[in-house]
Design brief:
single chain; about 625 residues; alpha/beta; Jelly Rolls; Immunoglobulin-like; TIM Barrel; eight-stranded parallel sheet; six-stranded antiparallel sheet; 34 strands; about 30% strand; globular
């Protein structure tokens, strides 16, 4: 792990008396299958890693562990009695929560715990939630400190005025209807079936406390360029400003200072002889960002990192638009990755488990991932940064949407009009996602819509996002109704893959197949439901699966020669009754060996041979 992520954590025992007994009695709830990492989870080791790798401070406290919980009618006030203990950060419905319960639109989920966080009069105490699904209200010592709506992005509250230097009580209420049409929820469903999976409600990522100065660095915005190589750092500050304060940024290559600068709020630093970030060489520079007063005393300091790279597109010798990275052509090949786990659902059982998936993808010769209609925790993107895996990041999908018009159809595409308040909430969650992961070099494409799910006001949204983030490309609707905005035309086709390459409507767009393959193969003893499973055409044997996969990649290779720029195979793992993964849902069996896959994929990364036509 990079030096910028070496931090110290204060572990404070939970104060309420029942927890020590509950820890000794806790066990995972019964479930159809479990991963080897899930077998190792305990209340003491559940997600202890520092949760925000791109803005590190040393003074923090992890609140994961056993909390009290209750599910009551949503109209009722805070319960007087608690139903038991739940293991945070795993959601109510997961086996690793110890509950494996269910939450409907008629219910509210309540949490309670105590904590101790000493602080001085010169400090602020921030309470961080990496993700809570979906509507959250928070009280500290009986004082309401804030509320938040949105299930997949981090948020925090300043609880300084409510917290006490002794023991404090933390109460949380969550409402998550899930099946509400306009709620961004991805593949969650109260009645899981086919490609709809078990709902995720409540806290499902790390909860933590942080102590900061009265004047502190709240956010960083980092951008890079390669000609010349530069790093731009902008810091958003909170607290009473000092007119003499300055910001200092130090860029490090290991122990060597590669660049250094000082200024007011925003700095642009030239990096001589820069090492560029790419999948083949995912080099990361460490950053120190220091806020100084007029006498050069440190007010606040955070550690971060960045990779110097530029994302773009340009035409090849035949006039086809293709992806570029650092001004070099690059074919994007990767799996659709939905991030589900049999024991943790949308929460991986551990950081190690999460990295296992990413390393398999890397070893298999993929250079990208389409992160499909969900958002991972911030450590996930740190790992894709350091491993060198390009990310197409979907927004979390909602409904309703228009009639589906695939690219190969000649029909005019349709759009959907949403109520203003629903659109504004959807836009808040989109912007929050972009802001949260803006600094991650591995993210190269934003995907606001999957297929037609929740697709609405397409041109307006595409124009806004193109302007808001000029450092990445825009795939406005992967497999969805195509509108002339952004950079990419994206077709989904499981029968082929196919793409209407000769259609002039897509001439000025990078042409990609955002989903293909999905070849189903059941591995006995590694099924979520022994009686029900499905994939896009059943391969009875591994040999048949290998042949189907080989044929799909051959077809993709031919399409690349004619102008295709990317392909996304469905998918990394099986998920519940869906059995079209490269691995089983429990990650205990690799259906396709990564070394075999790397060999199959190799021709896609080769430059096509130069052909001189002698006889037309």
């Amino acid at each position: 792990m990079k030096s910028s992520l070496v931090v110290f954590m204060l572990l404070v025992p939970v104060a309420y008396s029942s927890v020590a007994h509950a820890q000794s009695q806790w066990k995972m709830a019964d479930q159809p299958m479990v991963t080897r990492w899930g077998e190792e989870v305990t209340p003491e080791n559940a997600w202890r890693e520092y949760p925000r790798p791109q803005m590190v401070r040393s003074n923090w406290q992890n609140l994961n562990g056993l909390w009290e919980y209750a599910v009551v009618d949503r109209a009722h006030p805070q319960p007087d009695e608690w139903q038991g203990h739940i293991l945070v950060p795993f959601c109510l419905e997961s086996a690793l929560s110890g509950v494996r319960g269910r939450l409907t639109g008629r219910d509210a989920l309540w949490y309670r715990r105590t904590f101790s966080k000493p602080h001085t009069a010169d400090e602020r105490v921030l309470l961080h939630f990496e993700a809570v699904d979906y509507e959250t209200q928070v009280w500290v010592n009986g004082t309401k400190v804030g509320s938040h709506t949105g299930g997949h992005v981090p948020f925090h509250f300043d609880i300084t005025d409510a917290v006490e230097n002794g023991e404090s009580e933390l109460i949380i209420r969550v409402f998550d209807p899930t099946n509400n049409s306009y709620q961004p929820k991805g593949k969650q469903h109260l009645r899981p079936h086919r490609f709809w999976y078990t709902a995720v409600s409540g806290i499902w990522q790390t909860v933590w406390l942080e102590t900061v100065p009265q004047r502190y660095i709240d956010r960083l915005r980092i951008e890079t360029a390669i000609e010349p190589a530069r790093i731009r750092v902008e810091a958003a500050l909170q607290g009473e400003p000092d007119e003499d304060e300055t910001l200092e940024v130090i860029v490090r290559d290991g122990e060597t200072i590669a660049a250094r600068g000082r200024g007011k709020g925003e700095l642009v630093l030239d990096v001589p002889d820069a090492k560029l970030w790419s999948p083949d060489s995912p080099f990361l520079y460490d950053l120190e960002v220091i806020l100084l007063d007029g006498e050069n005393n440190v007010i606040d300091q955070v550690e971060s990192y960045t990779g110097i790279r530029t994302v773009g597109k340009k035409r090849d010798a035949d006039g086809h638009l293709r992806f570029t990275l650092n001004n070099e052509f690059i074919f994007h090949l990767g799996p659709l990755d939905q991030g589900w786990w049999p024991d943790g659902l949308l929460t991986p059982p551990s950081d190690e488990a999460m990295v296992y998936d990413l390393q398999y993808i890397k070893d298999a010769g993929f250079n990208m991932i389409r992160k499909h209609v969900t958002v991972e925790n911030r450590r996930y993107y740190y790992h894709t940064d350091r491993l060198g895996i390009l990310i197409w990041q979907d927004h979390v999908s909602a409904h309703p949407g228009p009639r589906w018009v695939l690219l190969r159809y000649r029909d005019e595409p349709e759009d959907r009009e949403w109520p203003d308040d629903k659109h504004e909430q959807w836009m808040y969650e989109l912007k929050a996602m972009v802001d949260t992961f803006y600094n991650n070099p591995s993210i190269v494409v934003w995907v606001p819509f999957n297929e037609r799910w929740g697709q609405h006001r397409t041109m307006k949204i595409g124009e806004w996002l193109t302007e808001y983030d000029r450092t990445r490309l825009l795939n406005i609707a992967s497999g969805g109704n195509f509108f002339p905005v952004g950079d990419i035309a994206d077709e989904h086709d499981y029968a082929g893959p196919r793409f209407p390459l000769d259609d002039p409507r897509y001439e000025d767009y990078v042409k990609v197949i955002g989903e293909f393959g999905g070849h189903g193969h059941a591995v006995s003893g590694h099924l979520w439901n022994q009686d029900e499973s499905w994939g896009y055409g059943g391969a009875e044997t591994l040999e048949e699966l290998e042949e189907r996969y080989r044929r799909s990649i051959r077809t993709l290779t031919e399409l690349k020669k004619r102008g295709l720029a990317a392909g996304v195979y469905t998918q990394t793992t099986d998920i519940e009754i869906e059995i079209n993964g490269l691995m089983t849902y429990d990650r205990r069996v690799n259906k396709l060996d990564p070394e075999w896959l790397r060999e199959i994929h190799a021709p896609l990364y080769e430059d096509p041979p130069a052909v001189e036509v002698l006889v037309p």
